[in-house]
Amino acid sequence: MVKGWAHYLTPTATQRRLGMACLGAGHKQQVDPCPPRVLQSYAAVFVVKGAGWLEWGDPPRRAELTASTLFWLFPGVPHSYGPHGRGWQEIWLLFEGPAATAYEELGYLSRTEPVVPLADPFGARAALDRLLDVCRHQRPGTEVEAAHAVHALVLGAHDQDGDRDADDAAILAALREGACSPLSVHEHARRIGLSLSSLRRTIRRGGGCSPKEYVLRIRLNRAKELLAESDLTVAEIARKVGHDDPAYFTRMFSRRTGMPPSAFRLQQRRPRRTARA
Fold this sequence. Notes:
4-stranded antiparallel sheet
């Protein structure tokens, strides 16, 4: 037995180009289990009150759930879930789009760990309440506002593990500090005190890429600052950001930014104040 309400959305092609599409949301009191099924979109379920279970995958894994727990459901992944006892209250939503896929690639949504116990559920609940309000009233711009609320929910749920986030932030800061040194990824890992595999997992989780890519991005950002703000030559800047070969640096910079360093400097150069006599 299910009691509650639901509103579904059908975003236009233009709205879908924003990258995130909310397909619907609802609030319900559920007593019977959700039968085994496979969705074509992503979904989220927030347990407002009560307790129950989730099974997902093939072979299936099982997790016990309590109130203030959020879990993600993924397209193509078989699952079933349901409450214990007299049932539970839940808020649910459906969403899809390239942004959802990117969040999964970045580790914000995990198929292996879809259950998120919310240590501070208020931010997630605020995003969900906003989404429910938008879907219920169907105002102009509903689809855009709903997509924004889904983004807020994903980000809010990702920020729940404060201890791990603090550890990851310290590792990312240490890597940024030495990124312009001419060190290999293995040497960076040893300098920070991590195994290479641990460094890779941390950077993937916090930076959304490999350690090599993360270091390269930091070097590019620093090079852009020096091109825009300093009078250093391109060769000098190349050495300052860890590249002994200016020609390689120029090729890499051009490939990544779409223009050579000299063109970037022309576009971004800020006027210098003339010293008074």
